Amino acid sequence: MQLRYSFRLYPDGPQCAALARAFGCARVVFNDALRARESARADGLPFPRIGDLSKLLITEAKKTPERAWLGEVSAVVLQQSLRDLESAYSNFFAGLKGARKGPKAGAPRFKSKRDARQSVRFTANARWKITPGGDLSLPKIGDVRVKWSRTLLSTPSTVTVVRDSAGRYFASFVIETDPNADLGRMPETDGRIGIDLGLTHFAILSDGTRIDSPRFLRRAEKRLKKAQQTLSRKEKGSRNRDKARVKVARAHARVADARREFHHQLSTKIIRENQAVAVEDLAVKGLARTRMAKSVHDAGWSAFLAMLEYKAARYGRVFTRIGRFEPTSQVCSNCGVKDGAKSLNIRVWQCRACRVWLDRDVNAAVNIAKAAGLAVTACRARVRPGPVPAQREEAGTHRDGQTTVVGIPWR
Asked: Which of 42, 93, 199, 252 is the most exposed place for a label (fewest CB within 10 A)?
């Protein structure tokens, strides 16, 4: 399995300038190649090959006064920019033919220096390396200080340097993991769990555990509002406006980082304690168009489920998604009788068949686990047992003076 590890970079002033040149050169080559291909399409000509584009837009362009500054950065960065364009076109055409899973990718677009995210990629041909002192040595940039938060499991072949909208720099490595070593990282367990996601509680487990929703965005709304108001009062195009924009981006980045950390910790805990996990396939895009849109985006269900899925695949767990049209909130987890649809304000209800009081969310989590074929206990889904009427043949007074109610003799 391939995993992406990201580490924070702390370049100094000259290194930031060198990275800015690399971002700009890679962007110019990408836009020139996109313009050449679009011009060929408009003229009815076949797309130029990536080799021809490399020779024309990199090798020959460096000899011209207009593009002589392309030689100030590593040639590998420019070559990888052309490969990014090639991948963008491949994904676009594969989506049109239906050969690519997931949502269709749009046609490649021109990049701008004002884009929120800038990145360049160095392959092994660039001869980048990690120095004995722990710095990241990049060609024509220098030794950049790295904050190593963990150890790389294998030697990566490429590194991508990313600058986000908040002005932070990251080094992203893609590594191959050993499946046998991954299986040994998580102990074997017999736990089986169903998860019902919500807004008041982020997750309700089939064993009755409730995880409160942190609501990171809601808690930071006042700070974000103040930063956004400060930005709106700055003159467009001024340096003060750019500083205010960075403050807004950093405030949003703190919210996103806190949410991601919460998702990672919770998903790892669930995968460690359970051998099989079942969730409901939610229509997140549909829910994000309702009046609950802000709360749905704040919860980040899709990112959390994606983490559960890849961690289950990595550590040999079973991950199952059930259909979103399963009536998990309408079926009694005790007797299996479908009791009909219920409005959202009904949180506790009584089954009309077995007369057991059920918690709506825990009952749904138990039904999610059952729909996935997981054998879980449903005892904690009950709020309290209701009165069970005795069977006609079991109630009454016998000749010996004993009376039996629900099969239990008493005097």
From this structure: 42
Give the pLDDT mean for 256-283.
93
The verdict on whether 280 is a catalytic residue reads yes
**Measured distance CA(312)–CA(4) in Å, rounded:** 16
Backbone angles phi, psi at 6, to 5 degrees: -120, 135
Give the CA distances from residue 178 to residues 1, 223, 314, in Å, rounded to whole numbers and listed in that order.
8, 44, 9
Task: Write the DSSP string, 328-360.
Answer: TTTB-TTT--B-----TT--EEE-TTT--EEEH
Active-site option among 196, 207, 298, 359: 196
φ, ψ of residue 318 in degrees (nearest 5): -105, 125
**Is residue 299 pLDDT above 80, yes or no?**
yes
- 361 carries an active-site annotation: yes
Q: Cα-atom radius of gyration of the chain, to the nearest Å?
A: 29
Name the catalytic one among 32, 84, 280, 359: 280
Q: Which position among 84, 207, 359, 361 bears the catalytic label?
A: 361
Q: What is the pLDDT of residues 195-250, one digit of tens each?
A: 999 998 999 998 889 999 999 999 999 999 999 999 999 999 899 999 999 999 99
Determine whether 298 is an active site residue: no
Nearest to residue 197, comparing CAs of 298, 272, 301, 286? Answer: 301
The pLDDT tens digits of the residues spanning 4-52 come to: 999 999 999 999 999 999 999 999 999 999 999 999 999 999 989 999 9
Q: Is the pLDDT of residue 378 over 90?
A: no
Task: Please give the pLDDT value at position 353.
Answer: 79
